[in-house]
Design a protein that fits this description.
Elements: H1 2-65, H2 68-72, H3 77-81, H4 86-149, H5 157-178
């Protein structure tokens, strides 16, 4: 009987581990669309910010290309006077490059996270399958051992119901016989 009790305890812990693993798979499946949306956002940000960076780098090149003739042109003079300080433009360009690199790095991190979540799902599928095999084997073992310990469990439900009806019929016939003679007997 101790063997059956220890197997039942193990089955209980196996069921708990199975539930934890299923929750883990469910959480991983929920995370994938969220990570994919985040990855899409990063790609959009990288594309749009690459355009900004290109524009800034173009401004840097234009800053150095103003020719002497441009200073004499009255239409270009206001634009040339409003030129951005070269040091600030260089700083802004450097910061934009760093931000673009950080976006690329975060994109790579998100891609790695998606791969990790997908590997968790595939590994968990194997773990859950093995747990199911162990569980079914243990249940069959417990049934067999319990059947050996208590042979009544080997009887079918129909036979048990028939025996139960025979016992009830006999008990009620006995009560009916003594009903008139003894008032203190209960029907059950």
């Amino acid at each position: 009987m101790e063997v059956v009790a220890s197997q039942l305890t193990y089955l209980k812990s196996l069921n708990q581990r199975n539930q934890k693993e299923q929750r883990r798979v469910t959480e991983a499946r929920r995370a994938i669309p969220q990570l994919q949306n985040l990855l899409l956002q990063r790609r959009v940000e990288i594309n749009s910010f690459s355009g900004v960076l290109t524009d800034l780098m173009g401004l840097q090149v234009q800053q150095g290309e103003a020719s002497e003739g441009d200073w004499e042109n009255p239409f270009l003079l206001p634009a040339l006077n409003a030129r951005v300080d070269c040091g600030r433009l260089t700083l802004l360009t450097r910061l934009a490059k760093e931000y673009c690199e950080s976006l690329s790095d975060s994109k790579a991190i998100i891609e790695n996270q998606i791969e990790s979540v997908q590997s968790v799902i595939s590994a968990s599928a194997g773990v859950l399958a093995r747990m199911q095999v162990i569980r079914s084997t243990m249940l069959e073992s417990v049934r067999l051992q319990y059947g050996l310990i208590h042979p009544i469990h080997l009887l079918s439900s129909d036979i048990l119901a028939y025996i139960f009806s025979l016992i009830l019929r006999q008990k009620f016939e006995t009560i009916r016989m003594f009903r008139g003679r003894a008032r203190g007997l209960s029907p059950i």
